[in-house]
TrEMBL record:
Assembly, per entry: Homodimer.
GO annotation terms (biological process): formaldehyde catabolic process
Keywords linked to the UniProt accession: Metal-binding, NAD, Oxidoreductase, Zinc
Classification lineage: Eukaryota, Viridiplantae, Streptophyta, Embryophyta, Tracheophyta
Domain Alcohol dehydrogenase-like C-terminal: 209-337
Cellular compartments per GO CC: cytosol
Subcellular location: Cytoplasm
The protein's name in its UniProt record: Enoyl reductase (ER) domain-containing protein
Family membership noted in the UniProt record: Belongs to the zinc-containing alcohol dehydrogenase family. Class-III subfamily.
Pfam families: ADH_N (PF08240), ADH_zinc_N (PF00107)
InterPro entries according to UniProt: ADH-like_C (IPR013149), ADH-like_N (IPR013154), ADH_Zn_CS (IPR002328), GroES-like_sf (IPR011032), NAD(P)-bd_dom_sf (IPR036291)
Protein's UniProt keywords contain DNA-binding: no
Matching Gene3D superfamilies: Medium-chain alcohol dehydrogenases, catalytic domain, NAD(P)-binding Rossmann-like Domain
Domain Alcohol dehydrogenase-like N-terminal stretches: 39-168
Length: 384
């Protein structure tokens, strides 16, 4: 009986950064994390980082903004315990959790044309994907909501097996963390979705972490001209580290449209345009900047005001296309290990994304750095 009790996972008390209300600083609290149920694993988070999507939902007052909640979704950790039917994982596995699931069995997961699992569809839920319930409670026993199936701003979290990817333990934790969301999204958009060819031209609207990751992906694919578009002049020098060859600040163009400048720079329009901000007007600019005949515009940004995309229908007839992107077309379980190998083979450069590091107790500093535009990625360490 004693041996059985030792084997059965028990609730864990640990620290977490809890979001109690929209836009308020996160509070470091003691929480209780339940054992994993069937098809779940409990992960000890080693480090996590702050993504713009975390900030979006931290500010969101209406559903699917919901409180109290443990946000965070870009992380690296080690499996602490596994539930029933989670046999592909074992305690001690090095893993990254992902907001996008992959069951590997549905028609979409089996197809090379999609990374959108149709058996367990993507949704912003307050609970776990299978039963909708929470695995977190606060010190008073009150429930705490989940975020994107990950909730990484905690020392321990419970994640569905479809949202967990094993990675090579040789990967440094902080860099494996980046593959959980931002770096994979941008690199994947160039590599998997657009399939950027050697010698091609690329225009990237918005040089935040995802835009810079697109530049890194385009560089790896061999693009000869990588144009970065951003109103922050500091992004000019930063972009060079990621392979950006030309920089445009729309504020410095006077009355000249940015699309006209790009068309002139590329002798007819960029082969691939990526919108990484989330503004319908910029999506339109990206489309107008793409080449007639084969120009592709890839939309990575979530429109922050919910505005519709409006593009000239006549230009569509000229052979241009617009592609939506979720997680850069990356199939998590299949492609994240490939990206890890690209790093270990010194093909993919990840170190340059990390601009700051803090401990969990200073997590609000990470928010300040991102909101002030000072950080690309701030790593938040659980044990510092």
């Amino acid at each position: 009986m004693e041996n059985q009790q030792q084997q059965a996972p028990q609730p864990i008390r640990c620290k977490a950064a809890v979001c109690r209300a929209a836009g308020e600083p996160l509070a470091i609290e003691e929480i209780v994390v339940d054992p994993p149920k069937a098809y779940e694993v409990r992960i000890r988070i080693v480090c996590t980082s702050l993504c713009h999507s975390d900030v979006t939902f931290w500010r969101m007052k209406d559903f699917p903004g919901i409180f109290p909640r443990i946000i965070g979704h870009e992380a690296f950790g080690v499996v602490e315990s596994v539930g029933e039917h989670a046999g592909e994982f074992a305690a001690g596995d090095a893993v990254v959790p992902t907001f996008l699931g992959q069951c590997s069995e549905c028609v979409d997961c089996r197809s090379p044309r999609s990374n959108m699992c149709s058996r367990y569809r993507f949704a912003v839920r307050p609970g776990m994907p299978r039963d909708g319930a929470t695995r977190f409670s606060d010190a008073q026993g009150r429930p705490l909501h989940h975020f994107l199936g990950v909730s990484s701003f905690a020392e321990y979290t419970v994640v569905d097996v479809n949202h967990v990817v094993k990675v090579n333990p040789a990967m440094p934790p902080s860099l494996a963390c980046l593959l959980s969301c931002g770096a994979s999204t941008g690199v994947g958009a160039a590599w998997k979705l657009a399939k950027v060819e050697p010698g091609s031209s690329v225009a990237i609207f918005g040089l935040g972490a995802v835009g810079l990751a697109v530049a890194e992906g385009a560089r790896i694919c061999g693009a000869s001209k990588i144009i970065g578009v951003d109103i922050n002049p500091d992004k000019h020098e930063l972009g060079k580290k990621f392979g950006v060859t030309h920089f445009i600040n729309p504020k410095e163009l006077g009355e000249k449209p940015v699309s006209q400048v790009i068309v002139e720079m590329t002798d007819g329009g960029a082969d691939y345009c990526f919108e990484c901000i989330g503004l319908a007007a910029l999506m339109n600019d990206a489309f107008l900047s793409s080449r007639e005949g084969w120009g592709k515009t890839i939309i990575l940004g979530v429109e922050m005001h919910g505005a519709p995309l409006s593009i000239p229908s006549r230009q569509i007839l000229h052979g241009k296309s617009v592609i939506g992107s979720m997680f850069g077309g990356v199939k998590p379980k299949q492609d994240i290990p490939i990206l890890a190998d690209k790093y270990l083979n010194k093909e993919l450069e990840l170190d340059k994304f990390i601009t700051h590091e803090v401990g969990l107790k200073d997590i609000n500093e990470a928010f300040d750095l991102l909101l002030q535009g000072k950080s690309v990625r701030c790593i938040i360490w659980m044990n510092k």
